[in-house]
């Protein structure tokens, strides 16, 4: 099986072209195997690029633990780059089908290769979100966790197709993500688990964020997460509709448009290498 390793700001996935080759029989097991950073290729998960009847391609995304997610913002930019650069569809505006519907992506192409992609990530889903809500029963695991005290945690929940919990704090560098992340991911309030983002606001249009992803743990960036941070900032009157988000792997530009209520995300998409994964 041919694969391509790609990343958006260090949020890295193994991409498999299922337009031109047979899809894997058990994608969940394959996701766990390829994602392993010691015994596999090493990635935050697996993304299948499949044929679509409604769009130029369809994306299916699996976390490192094999669970399937509805959406992946950094992933969908890379899918667009792959679809364009490999000639599956060479237009500068592509449509990609995802678990949250068909998204439109605009590619910045240089020397025949897509380098940056602007994605219309659709409207945030807020009906079930209690904004802000509190999470009882999740005490800080470390008394020195300054930004997490006092409990209960105040979280803002936003869905971009997949679920996100946004928590504001004074210093994201102090958050013990490996300890707090899994507690919040598995909190009883979130029966389908959740992606968790700690956010430090610098100004109404600039934040720094760190992410614990459902099913994958700490990642260097999360596109849908950054979109949810943009929306949460407006809902809680902390930031404006245009936002520059600094993530460990780099920056994303975000805008929650007043015109169409959609969130627009712009960022890079990078190919690292291709290879062959042995199949039985
Ligand atoms: N890194 C992805 C999100 C993955 C979300 C996944 N961990 C989930 O279970 O929803 C992004 O760039 O949007």
Automatic annotation (TrEMBL):
InterPro entries: DAP_epimerase_AS (IPR018510), DAP_epimerase_DapF (IPR001653)
Documented EC number(s): 5.1.1.7
Keywords carried by this UniProt record: Amino-acid biosynthesis, Cytoplasm, Isomerase, Lysine biosynthesis
Subcellular location: Cytoplasm
Location, primary (coarse class): cytoplasm
One Pfam family matching this protein: DAP_epimerase
Catalytic activity, as annotated: (2S,6S)-2,6-diaminopimelate = meso-2,6-diaminopimelate
Name used for this protein in its record: Diaminopimelate epimerase
Gene: dapF
